[in-house]
Amino acid sequence: MIPFNRPYLTGKELTYIRQAHCRAQLAGDGYFTKKCQNWLEKNLGTKKAFLTHSCTSALEMAAILADIKPGDEVIMPSYTFVSTANAFVLRGGIPVFVDIRPDTLNIDENLIEKAITRKTKAIVPVHYAGVGCEMDTILKIARRHGLLVIEDAAHCVKATYKGRELGTMGDLGALSFHETKNIISGEGGALLVNNTKFIKRAEIVWQKGTDRSRFMRGEVDKYTWRDIGSSFLPGELTAAFLWAQLEKANQITKKRLKIWNRYHTALKILEESGKLRRPMVPSNCKHNAHNYFLILSNSRQKERIIKYLKSKNISAVFHYISLPLTPFATRRSFPGECPVTKKTSNRLIRLPFYTAMMQKDQKYVIQTLVKKLQKTPQKNK
What we know:
Layout: H1 13-22, H2 31-44, E1 48-52, H3 55-65, E2 73-77, H4 82-89, E3 94-98, E4 120-123, H5 135-145, E5 148-152, E6 160-161, E7 164-165, E8 172-176, E9 189-193, H6 199-206, H7 212-216, H8 236-246, H9 249-266, H10 268-272, E10 285-286, E11 293-295, H11 299-311, H12 327-332, H13 339-345, E12 348-350, H14 359-375
Parallel strand pairs: 2-3, 2-4, 4-5, 5-8
Antiparallel strand pairs: 1-9, 6-7, 6-10, 8-9, 11-12
């Protein structure tokens, strides 16, 4: 079986985990946590980075820092993972779903402004597949209406928009190091604080609502409860594993770009014959080859192709269901009409993609897919 994903090892992960144990500190905010945070600050250009145990928890921290209260509205794309919405719903916020662009599958920046009401508190762009949203437009809208911008950059390490790292342009940004991402730690994430006014409070929220970090730096003689918060920081074993990945971030990205480009070149013939649509990357964006997806003619074809590839020992999968159509969202009647998302999500599949994917395996995936689709008559939905 050619799997959809296979976690990648650089070779130093177990060495650093042993070193973390030898340092006799396995709880969070130790030596490797600081190394990872410093790397993110230096290489991404964020003001302050806080490692978290998931991107979900980074978004939950962002919701606390944004002071989301019951009834506050948060604008986000309808095509995203549930954590994007859950982080704000947990604070009593109301997600307002905006449809996506048919080309990049990112939030349609031209639809944001009409979704703003007096209850709107923040805009949460999601950079799908490591391709940047139109951040200049989004930031201008946010400034015009006095709104926060919180970037869901779960897919985005080493991806840029107009030369700026994704996750570093809004007030806050959230990264993921889940095992399906480019840079991994099993589970893991980071909150990027780009607006300096949030740094002091973010450190307290990160440390269970206490000023423990100041105590550890010798700035206070005891630490105590200062604010709401939770145990958002990961343990040192996770950070040690992550450090081995961050050290090789450039090499990992190069490997993935080669895989992405092989797919993109080989499947051009199917796009030209109208069998599918390949990913589109705007010229002002530099992506990081997070995944490779295809948009097929209709939902029945998508299901048939996934089933066919499975019969050939190839694991291909679909992606997000339009959030406004999910059971929880419909019960709550969250606002948002998103026809592009509905049409696109019903037709999208993701091909096997992992950093150590062998060229012969990728060639087999491509040949199998091309052979099947070339025989398939073209049908409109």
